[in-house]
Amino acid sequence: MMQGTVMKITEHCIVVLCEDGTFRNLPHPPVMPGLGEKISVPVMAAPAHGNRYMRFLKKQWIYAASLILLLGAVFIFNYLQGAKQPVTFVAVDINPGLELVVNKHGRVDQVNLLNEDAMLLLSGKELENEDVYEALQMIFAQAEQQGYLDPESGKKWIWLSIVGVGEAAYAIDPHKITVQDKSYYVEVFALNEQQREKAQQEQLSLNKYIVKERAAEKGIPLSAEQLRSQSILSSLQEAGVDPLDLFDEGPKTEHIAALDQQVKDSNEDSKAVAEPPARQTSVQQEPILEEDSSANRVQSEAAGNGEIPEDSRRAQGADERNSVASVQQQPGTSAVQAQEEPAAEKTGKSPQAGSQDIVQKLNLEIKLAADGKVKLDYKTKDGKPEAKLERKVKQNQEKQQGPQAVSFAENLIKQLDLNEQSDRKAVQNLLLSALKIEEDGWLELQFEAEYSNGGTLKFQLENPLKAQIKAEEKKQEQERKEQEKANKKAEAQDKNKDKDNEKNNDKYNGNAKGQGEKPQQANKPQQANKPAQSGKKNDKNNDDDDDVD
Q: Which keywords describe this protein according to UniProt (predicted)?
């Protein structure tokens, strides 16, 4: 027991200041003490502020624990959702190494650049949301343009590894992976998640890992360190191995067969899932009307029961084949677009006006500063795209036509997302950004696009900074001429100096020559000759005297 002084009396308790300096809450005793009176306090009585502080701490701990549990639940949910998302990894090795992350719809969600050459090849953003086959074509075209692929110099190998994660992962069809130049060698491998994990452990790309494993099977030593620092082709050449000997047809055929089976299974699954909704849609979109003929009623009732007469199935099959054929004839249409567009026609939805396949003709000319220009002519002729590209920047001039120019034009059309209602200023900004032209680097822009529906988009723009750019160019030209004039004057002065130096050298050499001859005359016995000369002179004088006499 200890003593305490009553400091406060409330409705529920009394507050006592104890000898140890703490305040304690005590229940009302039978006999109520007065304020300031000393009473006995049991040791087990809890301090007043202590109870309040403990209650506060308990609340804070409860809040913190609830927050942690909530965050943990969100994290686990997101992780499980992410783990369930089916993806397909497509690793590409030329010398640039890339990895495409493809979603279940066959679109590129993410691009991983695996080495410096890949960073120089492209940024990766231009491939996002592209069809995987078109993305691969863009990679091959860019590699050709930058010299990573060149059959004449032996750079003609392309390695691809495909890993599907999840049952609904998009199945890559190896037969759709094509290269314009048929002299290239394209090796395609079907791998699994375990092999991808092993490749990550060794810090190798999927293709380098499978090449290392294949070489080990044939007794060829290839180290992971060597493959990390070099391309596959360079590593094989350094080891004295011909890639044709390493990649025979047997394993390649097995990988192609495995991928073909994946595509077949995927098509069967999609067909099984897609058929029931198609029947329901036909019933909803084509309701039975009283004015319909009896044949139409029978067909509609059969469709409602899930049964379609043979004649109707044939007619529908012919219509579908015709619609698919019409889509395939359009240039630049991907496999995914070919599947989506007939569905859009059935539901009454028109294709998006900004899609690239409706651009039939594109003429573009941009006049750049310093007499530079960019000129692009693109058109489809008999269903085949043609393009010519001309670029002149300062002293460099480049002309392209054929597949490379077509690829450039189609990629540009995708980035512009053109339609008849496109804003001119927006098109201008997208053009300058896509072509990497600075705001003060162009003077005039002429643009004309024609669409398959007969619409056109045509405009001509002039840079507001044109006068300023021209004035700057004129100033630079004047400075250049003045510099040339000063250089010529300096050259003339140098020539005059050279002539003066030559004259001085000749004069100096002449003086030196004269000075060199005098010592030679001084060395001759001139003293012996003098008396003879004087004698002759005396004889002459004597003769003169004789004549006078």
A: Cell membrane, Membrane, Transmembrane, Transmembrane helix
Q: How much of the chain is helix, strand and coil, in % rounded to 5? A: 55, 20, 25
Angle (CA) 237-238-241 rounded to 5° is 45
Q: CB of 227 within 8 A of CB of 208?
A: yes
What pLDDT was estimated at residue 365? 92
Distance CA 419, CA 404 (A): 24
pLDDT of residue 353: 38
Coil vs helix vs strand at 246: helix
CA atoms in the 13 A half-sphere facing the CB of 514: 5
The residue range of the domain holding 71 is: 2-82
Specify if 213 maps to a domain: yes
Segments of the chain scoring below 70 in pLDDT: 43-58, 77-84, 180-182, 248-357, 394-395, 420, 511-549
How far is 335 from 358, CA to CA, in rounded Å?
16
Nearest CA to 394 among 279, 276, 476? 476
What CATH number did the domain enclosing 61 receive? 2.30.30
* Of the residues 262, 284, 317, the one at which a domain ends: 262
**Is residue 544, in this structure, part of any structural domain at all?**
no
456 Cβ contact partners less than 8 Å away, ≥ 6 residues apart: 420, 448, 449, 450
**Dihedral (CA of 243, 248, 249, 255) sign:** negative
Q: What is the pLDDT of residues 16-36, one digit of tens each?
A: 888 888 888 888 888 888 888
